[in-house]
Every structure is written in structure tokens, then in C-alpha cells.
Amino acid sequence: MNGVSSGVLISLGAYFLVMIGIGIYAYFKQANDTEGYMLGGRSLGPAVTALSAGASDMSGWLLLGLPGYMYADGVVSIWIALGLTMGAFLNYIIVAPRLRVYTEIADNAITLPDYFANRFEDKSHMLRVFSAVVIILFFTVYTAASLVGGGKLFESSLNLPYSTGLWVTAGVVVAYTLFGGFLAVSMTDFVQGIIMLFAMVIVPIVAFTDLGGISATTEAVRNIDPNLLNITSGMTIMGIISLLAWGLGYFGQPHIIVRFMAIRSVKDIPTARNIGMSWMIVSLIGALMTGFAGRAYVQKTAMTLEDPETIFLVFTQFLFTPLVSGFLLAAILAAIMSTISSQLLVVSSSLTKDVYKLFLDRDAPEARQVLVGRISVILVAVVSILLASDPESSVLSLVSNAWAGFGAAFGPLVIFSLTWRGMNRNGAAAGMVVGALTVILWIYGPFQVNGMALNSWLYAIVPGFILSTIAIFAVSIMTGGPKDSIKAKFKEMEMNLDK
Q: Which of 162, 270, 354, 444 qualifies as a cystine partner to 132, CB 3.0-4.6 A?
């Protein structure tokens, strides 16, 4: 084993041990019940909430997908960053405080399907089942997307087989998620968020320094292709809308908004918002600058880069010492693992509460539900590994499909359930189904516009979000208003927000 590989392995090994250690610590600290395992006892502080939400949100997309997009297409990639920033900010303003209050009022709901069922007093279990299906379907794809990033990292940086990267990445995540549950996931996310932030600051700074500064780098990129510096190059109005529309996805991402349910007090949300948005803005700028500098660096060194999504890996290999390189690779793993662990926990919670307990064992004691949740973590991880087995998969493409699915199916439902007291169960179900089906048909259907696939012409989340909103309002109005007891709980939520 050469010196570089040894140094990298030392850093990665230390990182893995820290993550597993946190999982063991959380195992002994948390209560052995479903609220403890799946929601951390609603005890998260603002800093952990913010960085946990940010780290679980960004995944390997931040260090692989976004720099790769900037590398390939230039500054048009800024539109995605702008959309995400606006969406995340509005999520903290509109969703976070209301959801934290309402989930307790709605019979202490600890999962999103729990909240939907309790919010609308759905005794038929229709909302719980529909939302569980959406979560299991899209999150399995989303988890697979994150694992692709792990496989690429091991293949490109450690010269190990892609499949080995999948299994090692999944194995470490499963270990600490299995034992420590939500508390371990949130604590590891906090640490991983700090690692990611450091990487997103140090890598572009070193890269620009190596290239002679920002001006010299910009001139080098202009000489490669002036269009790379044009924020509207090759873009249509629909294209710009599609990129900005990524921000709509925030309102419906279960692994992100569950952090709002777990924060210890609604009074901590403004602090969490300030920390979270600062972290996000710095990280997004760093990711974009990494891809921008990467284009000039590859040209300068005359190297061949087959996959733009590996440009961050290139910098870690050529600009840093082995130990630092290993730390930076750990940042990619941190981004990947933080998202995978959150997704695994959300899916396992849904399988436990909304499938096992609902259909197989309604009287299951708390300890048995926690055991089923842990078994579900393993099962979902294995299925995701199988889906991620193709090394040619694009991280950005897989993430975009799952992001659109959640954003359209749950986004309007979450927003209007928290802001419109006239919404009823039928409207909620219609919005969820219409949003999910629209995205699936938009992406995988045989339809085209001007010879382009629909999802290439306009991002699926846009029609999905719009049609879901229309369905919620139309069906709620046509089928009558909610019951008085539901209105009373909504009023209680509003009163608690004003305290």
C-alpha cells in the first residue's frame, strides 16, 4: 500500500470509528421507545437541528453533483443554488414553527404519515397508507442515489471496486443508525455538517490559489468557453424555472422536516434558521466554486476527466497531503452518510408505524416496534444497494427524481395542512396522489414537447406541485369542510404560535 493510500485510510478509518462511537453513545443515552428511537425525544438543540437538517439535505450531491454541474455547464448552475436557498429559508419560516407545534397537538405524531393521519382524524388509514407508499418508494431511490456517491468515491480515490464502496458506505451507516436511532443520526449529522463546511471552504481556496487567483481562473475558464460564464447560456425560460423550482422540494422532504418536529422548542427555530442558512449559503458557494476552479485546473494540467461529478475527488488527490486528503474524502462520506442515515430512519419508521403496527401487530409493545425499526433499516439498505449497483448512475439525476417526487406529493400537503383550516382529508389524499403520479408520469411517461422528454423541458416538480395544489383546494371545497374538532386543533396551533 503506497503512502497516499495509507494516509487516506488512516483518516477514513478514524472517521468511521467516530461515527460508530457516536452511534453506541446514542444507544445508551436514548429512551428505548418509538419516540426516543424515531424522534430523539424531541430534544434537539438549535445547532444540532440546523446542521443535521443541512447535512441530511445536501448529501453527496453537494460535493459531487453540484460541482460536476458547474464544471460541465458553467454558471447556469447558480440557478439551482438560488432556488434551494429560497426554498430552505421559506421552509424555516412557514413549515418549521407550525409543524413543531402541530405534531404535538395532533396526538404527538412522530412521523409524517402519523401527522397526516392525526391532523385530519383519518380513521380509514388512507392518508397513512398513501404517504407510507410514497416514502418507501421515493426514499429507496433517494438512498440508492446517495450510495452511488459512496461507490464512486471508493472507486475513484481508493482504486477499490465500486461494489465495495457501496457495501462499506452502507455498512457503517447501518451500524450507527441501527443502534443509535434518530439521536445518533442527528449527532453524526452535526459532526458531518462541520466536516462538510470545512471541506467546502478549504478546497476552493486552495484550488484558486494553485491557479493564480480568482481573476486568473476566470480568464482561464473564459478561454475554454465564454458561454461557461454566461448565466443564461443555453437556457430557456422553462429551464430557469426548472432550476429555481428545486426550492419547492424542501416543503415535502420527510428527512429534513422531521428535524423541525424534533427540535426541543419552537423558540429555538429562529436560531436554528440563522445557523442553518449560514451553513447552507457558504456550502453552496464552496461547491460551485469547486466546480468552477475544476474546469480551469483540468485544462491547465491537461488531464482527462471522464466524469465531471468526480472533480472534488481530483482536488483531494492532487492538491493535499495524504492525511488531509483522507479528511476531505471523509467530508464526501459525511455528506453521503448523513443523508442515507436520515433516509433509512424515515423509511424504517414508516415501515414500523404505518405498515407493521397498522396491519400486522396493532398492540405491538414499544420495544418490539424499535426492533422492527432496526430490522427495517437493514432491509431498506440492502434493497438500495441493489438499485445502486450500476456505476454509471448519475447522482444528480437520481436525486432530482426523488426530490421532485417528495416535493410534489408532500410539499403542498404540508404547507396547506399548516396554513389552511379549510383543508380536509379527501383534499389531502387527492393532493398527495396527484402530485406523486404527475411526477412519475412526467419523468417516465412517453410524452414529449418539441422532441424533448417532458422532464428535460420542465422539471417534474413544477407541474406536480401545481396540480397537487389544485387537487387539494378543489377536492376540499367540493367534499365539504373539516370537522369542528379538526378546526379546534388548528386554532390551538395558531394560538400556541403566538405565545
A: 354
Cell of 379: 432491509
User: Rounded to whole angstroms, how far apart are CA atoms 438 and 172?
Assistant: 36
pTM of the predicted model as reported, rounded to 2 decimal places:
0.84
Cβ atoms within 10 Å, residue 164: 14
Residue 449 lies inside a defined structural domain of this protein: no
Q: Show the 3-state SS of 423-447.
A: CCHHHHHHHHHHHHHHHHHHHHCCC
Residue with cell 424515531: 38
Number of domains making up the chain? 1
Cell output for 223: 478561454
How far apart are alpha carbons 331 and 44 in whole angstroms? 23
CA distance linking residue 446 with residue 435, whole number of Å: 18
With respect to residue 22, please indicate whether it lies within any of the assigned structural domains.
yes
Q: How far, in Å, CA of 86 to CA of 248, rounded? A: 9
Bridge partners for 263 per DSSP: 44
What are the tens digits of pLDDT across the range 326-335?
Answer: 888 888 777 7
- What is the CATH classification number for the domain harbouring 324? 1.20.1730.10
Return the SS3 of 33. Answer: coil
Domain residues for the domain of 281 are 3-397
CA distance 457 to 443: 11
- Locate 209 and state its grid cell: 490559489
d(CA 415, CA 98): 9
For 452-476, how does the pLDDT look when each residue is reduced to its tens digit (9 = 90+)?
Answer: 888 888 899 999 999 999 999 999 9
